[in-house]
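agent> call fold_tool(seq_1)
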Amino acid sequence: MLTRFHVKNFLCLKDVDVDLGPLNIFIGPNSSGKSALFKALGTVSRLLRYPLRGDASGDFNVEPGITFDDAVWCGDTQLPIIFELWFDNNEDDTPDYYLELRRGYPGWSVVSEKFMFGGRRIDTGVEGFKMPTLNGEPRILSGPFRATLAFLTYHGLTNPKIAPYLEPIRKIREQVGQARRYRPSPSDISQFVKPMVVKGITRNTTVDENGRGFAIELQNTWKADRPTFDTIQKELCKLHPHITALDFQVDWRGTGILYKTNRVAFGTPASLESDGVLLTTFLLWRLYTSPINFKLCLEEPENGVHVASLGQRYQSLKHSLESFGNSKGVQILVSTHSRDLLNAIDSRPNILSEVRVVEFAPDTGTKIYNLNHWRQIDQLLDETRNQIGDLWWSNRLASHT
């Protein structure tokens, strides 16, 4: 599990250090840096799987059409972008993984990676990397690199002679895991989806951040992993008692979700079901089908949910994490600018360690900090009741930490 994350010069994150647990609630106004943090996590995870440059699809994009030239702090391409990560069982201040990117003549490159390798901490920016080959003669890779070592050496993991040597790199990749940012939309979740067929071959449909493509993926779970699908269905029926089962509708439009309920004799198409049910279905699928060390970055979970049900939404997220135990290392990061979510949670002391306040100042960028006492949560709620903007920009809460 990722326990600490440090970012420099990425979007509005000029110099941000944040501690992370299984469930993390980031609360702050619009444009304070909540989404930027989620994008930073997603960028690190993708950099271990895709090159910065030289790929057939072009240079690395933070998101479609956005390169590192756009993402560096204040557009200053002379600045490095740095990511540092700490994982479980790290007892000192040295990060388990350090990644530094800089822009040169060819474009953005990896100028330094630091991590434990072969019993010592290496720095590829100083010594390069000794890459084993099939003929037994090692090859020295010298930077700057067009990609991280996790990408450059990935082919070596398929060779039984080379794979043991590359185990520390494979472990870093696994510990970082995947991070996906979602702002699920009921209309996108309920859409019919057609399988993607390229040159006669059916490819997996990816689910985008709004939920488009969800129906096919949920159906694939039903086909390939029935126990997980049954768990999703059981939890959904528990949270929304009028739902009795999940089903699918297939016609000329593609595949859509059908809900069986105790209200009508026939199934209810997803587009006619409530937003809350659709969002719950999506979240349950995403949590229970997540790979190891997955980071679910969820924006505005209060959308589509009645105020009276927000406490239930929080409890369902907690319950999903508890059902995994520590086996999968799944983490949930929630961003909100609504006081209603915190107000709906009864136990202030229990969520104190989960709440992070996010603020932004033009000169120093985003600041993220924990609260020290549960009464600060009440203070946060009271002071934002009428004039939410004044509190965030005044930095008054920070003075109490």
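agent> call fold_tool(seq_2)
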Amino acid sequence: MNLGTEEFESDEEAVLLAATKRPDQVMRKPSRFVFGLAAASAALLLAIASFIAPSWVNLRPGFRNTSQVTASTIGKSLVSEEWKRNKEKFQEKVSLPPFDGQLLKAVFEETSANTFFEELQMDDGTVSFRHTNGMFITAKNGERVVSSPSIPGSTQFFGKATNEDGTISLMVHGGSWLTALPSGIIVANAANIQAWQTFTQQKGENGTIALRNTHGKYLGVQTHGEQFAVADRSMLTNDFSIITTAEAVSIGLREKLTIVHNTADNTVSFRTIYGTFLTSPPRLDGLVSGDSTIACGREAFSLIKKNGKVYLHTFDGRYITALMHGFLVGDAKQPNLWESFDMESHGDGTVSLKSFHGKYISATKLFGPSF
């Protein structure tokens, strides 16, 4: 495999290099989601930089260097040794998920019936991509992306970020970004957005789009002339609104949530007495709601259990926080006291969640018949 001026034996070794966030592999302005290099990446960068022939050009705050630089043989050796030490662990992380589908690859030189997807916009701010054969782009954190039939959970819903250069990046449940490898394999394993995490959208007929990766190839699957299946992912239009707060002092119908286990990605969803689902906010400064009529991406939570408490890990890789006045937000980076809940089971498939402040999460209907 050739990556710039370096050759690697496998995609995995190349991805390990990409994970070190070397600036010579990033030739674009970063998106607003990029938050800087990790300490380990900076250390490797210093080691490689000492052997770089061309000098760096001046950097402006918030923008990456666009000069072409080449890693030395010693720099490559450092990466190779790191790959050997972590090979077994890395291969486990990028294993093929156990979905009933086919591996999704970006190998098409031109657009065709194989490369177009219908983008479905969800009310929770996520998007879903359905191919002409009716299969959905399906991704689980740390694993390879496949094309799969409709399955419950959050694996077929993505957070969509628009970068400064007009490209998009797609985030899976837990906060990782899709990475396009030179071979065409797509892996959901990136902590930040760089060149390999960007896709260019190209419009097709009937509102469809094609996704081209940074290597110039289009994402797609083989088809046999199938047409789009009947739409089954659109949100229902509500004439009411469900607010969720942690301010109830006792348990009634509105404090009972039916817990739904999503076996495909080991997440859970919480259905209210009104048939709607607890939803993490699409913006970090927003509030948790209960408006969604189906469980999409932001309605799936990783349930973290520790010391008898549970923590709700959101689609964006954050945690639900219960504030003192009862509002629920989803912007905590770490699970602390205000992110902890007591989960009380009622033996009928429902549970109640009591916050650190001693109040229960309650769903209240603002319009229409209430309970």
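agent> summarizing second result for user.
Confidence is low (pLDDT under 50) at residues 1-9, 16-80, 87-93, 224-237. The first strand starts at residue 2 and ends at 3.
agent> awaiting next instruction.
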